[in-house]
Design brief:
The chain has eleven helices and five strands, in the order αβαβααβαβααβαααα. It has 282 residues and is α/β, with parallel strands linked by helices. The N and C termini lie close together (10 Å). Residues 272-282 have low confidence and may be disordered. Helices cover 46% and strands 11% of the residues. Helix 9 (215-225) crosses helix 10. Strands 2-3-4-1-5 form a five-stranded parallel beta sheet, sandwiched between helices. It has helices spanning 26-40, 56-66, 83-93, 102-118, 135-145, 164-169, 175-180, 192-205, 215-225, 229-246, 253-261; strands spanning 45-50, 71-76, 122-127, 155-161, 181-187.
């Protein structure tokens, strides 16, 4: 690999989300700060949406790490296949018997939430991949979001999903659910300046002590990735492998074009260029 070639302490462009390599850029900070502010105000349902690869998983992990002490977390990473399954998954998180009959499960959940509220705790349920939830699971979330005392909500719900969730919620029969979402953040792609800052911080954290890319290469990576962090990582990783294999001290246009050519989902340059390497992968 290229780690020793460039004198790095670690690989800077790993694809697995890691909070230690979190880059505090505006799209992600805005989503985290908006969610924390909405929770502090006692709002019921909050939505964070973003395209594949824009950093929803990392934002989710950072949000969980930053939850104030008065919040108790219930994390549901796998989309439920029905409303009953969602309620039972939440019951397990709250130490309520998941074997409780369906007709009394909501009441048991309400009692558990009231007990926590009396102890000074507010419960936040974070639901990932929300775009995959069926309609009856969304209805279960709406009804759970209605649980409240005379003064405040008993349950705060954070939905994370792809843009398909917005398309789902635009349907007429889901208008009641849509109206329950009080705050919404969208993880937009990075602009050029943010892309440069992202790459430079990842390199700095990996121990890079000298410039390895010029502005022209940053721009090509940004255009090809459309500002999507996951694609930025893939393109940089492959360009660095190519530079290492060529024995050059920095990333040239040749290596960037190789990476673009080899990456599914990358926007290809308008002009064609020959296949510059004989392998595919990395």
């Amino acid at each position: 690999m290229y780690q020793s070639h460039f004198g790095l302490k670690a690989l800077p462009f790993a694809l697995t989300p890691n909070t230690r390599s979190f880059v505090a850029l505006p799209p992600h900070l805005e989503a985290i700060q908006m969610t924390l502010a909405a929770l502090a105000m006692g709002e019921g349902i909050i939505q964070i949406s973003g395209e594949v690869g824009t950093g929803k998983t990392l934002v989710c992990r950072m949000l969980i790490r930053q939850l104030p002490a008065q919040f108790e977390l219930a994390y549901l990473p796998t989309p439920a296949t029905s409303g009953d399954e969602l309620r039972r998954a939440l019951a397990r998180e709250l130490a309520v018997s998941a074997e409780t009959p369906t007709e009394t499960l909501t009441e048991q959940l309400q009692q558990a939430l009231i007990a926590r509220k009396s102890a000074g705790k507010a419960v936040v349920v974070v639901i990932d991949e929300a775009q995959a939830l069926p309609d009856d699971a969304l209805e279960a979330i709406r009804l759970l979001g209605n649980l409240e005392t005379e003064q405040e909500k008993l349950l705060h719900i954070v939905l994370l999903g792809q843009p398909e969730l917005d398309q789902r919620l635009a349907q007429h029969h889901l208008r009641q659910f849509r109206q329950r979402i009080t705050f919404r953040a969208c993880l937009r792609p990075l602009d050029l300046a943010e892309t440069i800052a992202y790459i430079e911080q990842r390199l700095a954290e990996a121990g890079c002590e000298r410039p390895l890319l010029q502005l022209a290469q940053y721009r090509e990576i940004w255009l090809a990735s459309r500002g999507i962090p996951r694609l930025i990582n893939q393109l940089c990783h492959k360009a660095f492998i190519a530079a290492c294999s060529h024995g050059v001290p920095a990333i040239r246009r040749k290596e960037v074009l190789m990476a673009i050519k080899d990456t599914l989902g990358a926007r290809q340059p308008m002009c064609t260029f020959p296949i510059l390497w004989g392998w595919h992968g990395a």
